Amino acid sequence: MNLRTACIRLALEGLYFTGTWKVLGPLSSGIGTIFTMHHVRPARNDVFQPNALLEVEPDFLETLIEYLRYRKVDIVSLDEAKRKLREQDYEKRFVCLALDDGYRDNLEFAYPIFRKHGVPAALFIASSFPEKTGLLWWTALERAIAATERVEIEIGGKLRKFDCGSAGAKQKTYENIYWQLRGLADERDLRRIVTELCARYGVDPLGPCKDLCMDWSEIKTLASDPLITIGAHSVNHYMLKKWDAETVKQELTQSAAAIETALGRKPVDFAYPVGDKTSADAREFALAKDAGYELALTTRPGVIFPEHREHMTALPRVSLNGHFQKIRYADVLRSGVPFALPHCFRRLDVA
Q1: Total of domains in the chain
Q2: Residue 269 falls inside a structural domain
Q3: Distance of alpha carbon 341 from its chain centroid, rounded?
Q4: In terms of domains, do 264 and 171 share one?
Q5: Tens digits of per-residue pLDDT, 204-250?
């Protein structure tokens, strides 16, 4: 656990055990929460897991659903959430469940839980992933570092060298390189660097996509169930803000077209890849609306308020992070308090 994760966990514990989340919750909880996930699968034994934050265990997901049902929280589809916002139906708070990227474990482990409990969920598919041509660069980077005890990499014209003979050293190397790459203005440079790094250390850069993502037939199996909504997640999982407007338009429209071709139904919901302020902003929100999407999800952390009905392509989400798999943390996050306090209870973050 790194220092940032430890601090967040300490803050969540403090909000819970002091009761602050209950006291302030009526002011900050809004009308609903969209929880987002990526992988849903059993815990792995690997000592080097820099992307563990993207994984939740099936038992935790099922316990959360059972707990929400026990608390009589409505678990609704995105269509129902849109209806509630449009019709100003705020009588009962809701939760939506969303999963990004299209990993096979969503079919193997998450879907049986949704079906067992009759719970709707939305899956957002980057259309190059079922084609097995997508670069999951964050996982490719993990595999490249795992394959060697010393990394040499040039970022921004500067050659960097890392010793990574232990799991701890690999973790530090990953975090250092990851955030340097995220800081690059041009995402093409990021993708080139990761691809070259993989080649240097004998790793297939497309291996994660081939190994981990569903193909169209598997996605079609999910899409045939009325509980499951399929949304778009771009073509190439680009951080859209880093690209020119024409490329963004293509990512928005071509991903929807690919899904319509494969599944017979055009998606009306979108999730911005990465989705934070460095990846999606006012321009992307407007372009998503122009592309015909009824709703688009960021990863800006927060709950849904009535005012969001005027900003349907800039909705916040709450990550179900693999480092915080406790029901009490979900309670604190649904209260909205962790997001309200740093922003002085400002409800919207849409620009």
Answers
A1: 2
A2: yes
A3: 23
A4: no
A5: 999 999 999 999 999 999 999 999 999 999 999 999 999 999 999 99
